[in-house]
Amino acid sequence: xxxxxxxxxxxxxxxxxxxxxxxxxxxxxxxAFTGLPQKYFFTGWAERIIRLMGxxxxxxxxxxxxxxxxxxxxxxxxxAVLAARRAGRERGTMxxxxxxxxxxxxxxxxxxxxxxxxxxxxxxxxxxxxEYWAVVWGTAIMATTGLIMWFPEFLARFLPGVLVPAARVAxxxxxxxxxxxxxxxxxxxxxxxxxxFPMDPAMFTGQVEVERLRREHAEEYARLVEAGIVxxxxxxxxxxxxxxxPPQ
Length: 248
Known about the structure:
Blueprint: E1 9-11, H1 15-39, H2 44-52, H3 56-86, H4 98-111, H5 126-150, H6 152-156, H7 163-192, H8 202-205, E2 207-209, H9 210-216, H10 218-226
Antiparallel strand pairs: 1-2
């Protein structure tokens, strides 16, 4: 694990983004805690959890309440992204491009010992982009299939009835995939990577150390230095030269 030497920091996430992230933690965990026992209702552990929450009807009420909160949060996020882009504050850095595919291949080559240096990343690297879009994709699937299961008779008037059992299968499968992705993918990147263990505080404090920004997002660091937002750090022996900043 890399030693910690608190140094100058730079703002990375706004207060609104941190509140969004905190609400997502709450809604995701409550939905998983109330949803998985309904999927595995025939098991002993599920029966105990449902009984602990006051029965199946109460469990469903909690689940649907937080599902509505997640949907509202999703609409807020879409609106916030559109408003930011309209105001010129968002540069589309979460978009997945061919460069991200190239970075995956270059990173694999580095980890396999076939390259001496890792690829240089911008504000967000490919892992963060893939995880972001996995949340978007998973939320869309869970919301759509959840509404189909919530209002099956109404939706069956307009859609083929076979969609109801199909939605149940997709909802349960996506739930398992989402929980597994959080435990394996997100927990590793946010908690268990040697560079951040035991926890990456950036999403909670909103700040990241400039030295870490240079190490993990060298292109973003170079952009902020060029813009005069951060003061350049002295080049260390293990630090790569600053990359050129691509045109905005």
